[in-house]
Amino acid sequence: MEPKKTEAIILRTRDFGESDCIVTVFSSLCGTLKGLAKGARRSSKRFVNSLNIFSHVNLEFRDRRSGDLVWLDSCELIDGFPGIRADYALLLRASYVAELTETLFPINVPSNEMFQLLGWALGAISDGRDLEKTMIVFQARAVSIGGFSINTSKCGLCGRAYKGEGRALFHPSSGSIVCMACEKESALTPGIGPNAVHVLTQLQSHDLPAPDSLDCDKEMLTELSTVLAAHIEHHIGKRLRSAHYLT
Ligand SMILES: [Zn+2]
Asked: Per-residue confidence of the chain (247 residues) as pLDDT tens digits?
């Protein structure tokens, strides 16, 4: 099998046998990959300092004749995002973005756009700036790339167009905002103001914005993070393990 090259982010490693590792990465070329790194736990030059979780690397690998596991030939560090490992709160957020990426894009579901988003989010988390905004941008872009954007154009129950005025509600089972005539605000159908709806629409439909360019007050951030968490949890049918630590 011909070797292939790709950039990748290390999502997880576990020891295998006496000196090998099984490494799960998210790659720009083929999405989630699981590979066997032979001899990685010996002082192997092919993997030196490059298999730490969340590291951004250049990877060389070969497909095997059968099964999902690939052979990892070598791995070279591009950026280790050292800030993440120095702070537990940052580590939890990085765990969440990695877990959501792998859940939305399992093995054999490639997305270079998702790879770029993951790398951007880990860089922003490692720098520790605008964390709340970073997580909102990541979640909104991830649902958009994953093909399950929140409908913000009309009520998901009666179909009435939303004109960007007045408070709306988020309705998880229809993945949509709904109007106040159709539902009442509750923990299950959280409220969202017109400014937050506008920001969400922008985030879902445009390329990655800089988090510091997001004009959000505290209330909008709370609304957006509540709505996105409810939407993601409903769509994937479970709460991510790492999501428990974010609230
Ligand atoms: Zn309605």
From this structure: 789 999 999 999 999 999 999 999 999 999 999 999 998 888 678 888 889 999 999 999 999 877 889 999 999 999 999 999 999 999 999 999 999 999 999 988 999 999 999 999 999 999 998 899 999 999 999 999 999 999 999 999 999 999 999 999 999 999 999 999 999 999 999 999 999 999 999 999 876 666 667 788 899 999 999 999 999 999 988 777 777 666 5
**What is the pTM for the complete model shown?**
0.92
Ligand 1 centroid to Cα of residue 155, in Å, is: 5
CA 192 / ligand 1 centre spacing (Å)? 14
CATH numbers and ranges of domains, the chain? 4-127 (2.40.50.140), 131-245 (no CATH)
Strands (E), 80-220: 168-171, 176-178, 191-192
Angstrom distances, CA of residue 74 to CA of 36, 55, 88, 123, 212: 11, 14, 29, 23, 37
